[in-house]
């Protein structure tokens, strides 16, 4: 009997040694998966030290043509929170969630309660406007919308992990004030400019931002995935750029600025980055680039290209 007790004790001791650290294991962090970079950035800020946030979109990947792979579904099995933009940005999200058999998983549609603008562009446009089924999914590019998204994501965090609600509230408030500051900087920084026309050689992403600050916004592609403009459309675009007297052509993130480059050369304009922040590169992700930082750089480039005082 005594021998058996000793043996049991020895086994228990061995089992105890098999964990990498002695003592109590570190508390499990809430596991969060966000589809696009803006949501990832918001979730990372809100979750702070209590969350492990990952980006579903591989770094550098194009957001609109992304389709989740079987490995992504596996990732959701062990997740607590899944955050997406809405049905127009991630049309695959709902069926993905149906296929995930994870009882504890909470899905957060961060676009909830946000009124969507119609997707499209202003003039010289003979494309179909409704590639995304009617709603412009780039909601985070209006700072009020972004704040609503932060609140919605915060609600997801506090519902899923009530013990840390206070910290989540504090972190979200800090992020919200950063967005308020940015909005003020945009308002002041774009108030007095020689030009108010933004010519973007990318897909239509800045409709919300343009509306908010009274800019005229022209994009080369109404939606992502559109084919390159033909020679006639290119000529029309060059004509349009000349007529607006725009000093800069903006190119979008993570794509070759070939089209923007051609337009800039044809019209003698400068080439500047205007990032809609759908995603970032592997290097930027590793360096910890944030959405507010991207928006700061955008403001700088807008002010430079539009000759603002
Ligand atoms: Zn887009």
Tell me what the structure shows:
The structure is a single chain. The N and C termini lie far apart (89 Å). Residues 12-20 and 121-132 have low confidence and may be disordered. The protein has helices spanning 2-17, 37-47, 70-77, 93-99, 143-160, 165-189, 207-212, 231-244, 258-267, 282-287, 291-305; strands at residues 30-34, 51-55, 81-84, 106-109, 197-203, 216-221, 248-251, 270-273. By secondary structure, it is of the alpha/beta class. The strands form 3 sheets. It has a 4-stranded parallel sheet, with helices on one face. Helix content is 44%, strand content 13%. The protein folds into 2 domains: 30-115 and 125-186, Nitrogenase molybdenum iron protein domain (Rossmann fold); 192-305, Nitrogenase molybdenum iron protein domain (Rossmann fold, 3-Layer(aba) Sandwich). The protein is globular and about 70 Å long. Zinc ion (ZN) binds at residues 63-64, 138, 203, 205, 224, 276, 278.
Blueprint of the fold:
Layout: H1 2-17, E1 30-34, H2 37-47, E2 51-55, H3 70-77, E3 81-84, H4 93-99, E4 106-109, H5 143-160, H6 165-189, E5 197-203, H7 207-212, E6 216-221, H8 231-244, E7 248-251, H9 258-267, E8 270-273, H10 282-287, H11 291-305
Bound molecules: zinc ion (ZN).
Largest sheet: 4 strands, parallel
The CATH fourth-level homologous superfamily of the largest domain: Nitrogenase molybdenum iron protein domain
CATH topology of the largest domain: Rossmann fold
Provide the number of structural domains: 2
Helix content: 40-55%
> Oligomerization state of this entry?
single chain
Query: Which stretches are poorly predicted, pLDDT < 50 over at least 5 residues?
Result: 12-20, 121-132
Which band does the percent of strand residues land in? 5-15%
Radius of gyration: 24 Å
How do the SSEs run, as a string of H and E? HEHEHEHEHHEHEHEHEHH
Number of strands: 8
Task: Output the number of helix runs.
Answer: 11
- CATH C-level class of the largest domain is Alpha Beta
- Structural class of the secondary structure composition? alpha/beta
Shape: globular
CATH-scheme architecture of the largest domain:
3-Layer(aba) Sandwich
Order of strands, widest sheet:
2-1-3-4
Query: What separation lies between the terminal Cα atoms?
Result: 89 Å
| Associated small molecules | zinc ion
């Amino acid at each position: 009997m005594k021998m058996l007790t000793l043996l049991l004790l020895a086994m228990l001791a061995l089992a105890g040694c098999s964990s990498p650290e002695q003592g109590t294991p570190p508390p499990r962090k809430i596991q969060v998966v966000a589809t696009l970079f803006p949501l990832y950035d918001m979730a990372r800020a809100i979750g702070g030290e209590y969350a492990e946030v990952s980006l579903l979109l591989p770094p550098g990947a194009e957001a609109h043509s992304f389709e989740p792979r079987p490995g992504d579904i596996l990732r959701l099995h062990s997740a607590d929170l899944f955050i997406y933009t809405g049905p127009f940005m991630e049309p695959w999200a709902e069926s993905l969630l149906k296929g995930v058999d994870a009882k504890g998983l909470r899905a957060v549609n961060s676009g909830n309660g946000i009124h969507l603008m119609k997707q499209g562009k202003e003039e010289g446009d003979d494309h179909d406007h409704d590639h995304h089924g009617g709603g412009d999914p780039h909601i985070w590019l209006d700072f009020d919308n972004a704040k609503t998204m932060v609140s919605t994501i915060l609600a997801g965090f506090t519902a899923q992990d009530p013990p840390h609600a206070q910290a989540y509230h504090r972190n979200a408030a800090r992020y919200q004030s950063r967005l308020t500051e940015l909005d003020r900087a945009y308002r002041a920084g774009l108030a007095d400019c020689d030009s108010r026309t933004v010519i973007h050689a990318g897909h239509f992403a800045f409709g919300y931002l343009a509306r908010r600050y009274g800019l005229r916004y022209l994009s080369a592609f109404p939606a992502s995935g559109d084919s390159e403009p033909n020679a006639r459309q290119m000529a029309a675009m060059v004509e349009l750029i000349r007529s607006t007297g725009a000093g800069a052509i903006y190119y979008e993130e993570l794509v070759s600025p070939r089209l923007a480059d051609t337009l800039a050369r044809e019209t003698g304009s400068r080439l500047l980055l205007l990032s809609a922040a759908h995603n970032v590169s592997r290097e930027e992700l590793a360096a910890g680039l944030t959405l507010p930082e991207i928006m700061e750089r955008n403001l700088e480039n807008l002010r430079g290209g539009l000759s603002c005082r």
